[in-house]
Design brief:
This protein is an alpha+beta fold. It has helices spanning 21-33, 38-57, and strands at residues 6-9, 12-14, 62-65, 71-74. The protein starts with 5 loop residues before the first strand and ends with a strand.
Length: 78
């Protein structure tokens, strides 16, 4: 079971997590590309995953359309 988050300040909860080296590397690359922090990238990732999860639970489908017009359906692994 994960430890309970610790309140740090108003609207902020401190959370400790372990990432696989490849995931940490990708988070750092995304943070650099977006001129932000690893923490912000994790928060954005949670927001996007939450949106996709809610949409698919309501019957929605996530489709990625590439520049060449091909489409790919994205399916969550649960």
């Amino acid at each position: 079971m994960a430890p309970m988050p610790q309140a740090v300040g108003k609207g902020v909860v401190k959370v400790s997590m372990n990432l696989r080296p490849e995931a940490a590397k990708r988070a750092d690359e995304l943070a650099e590309r977006a001129s932000t922090t690893r923490t912000d990238i994790v928060q954005r990732g949670i927001s996007v995953l939450n949106y996709v999860d809610e949409a698919t639970r309501k019957g929605g489908t996530l489709i990625v359309e590439y520049k060449d017009g091909t489409r790919e359906r994205v399916v969550l692994p649960w």
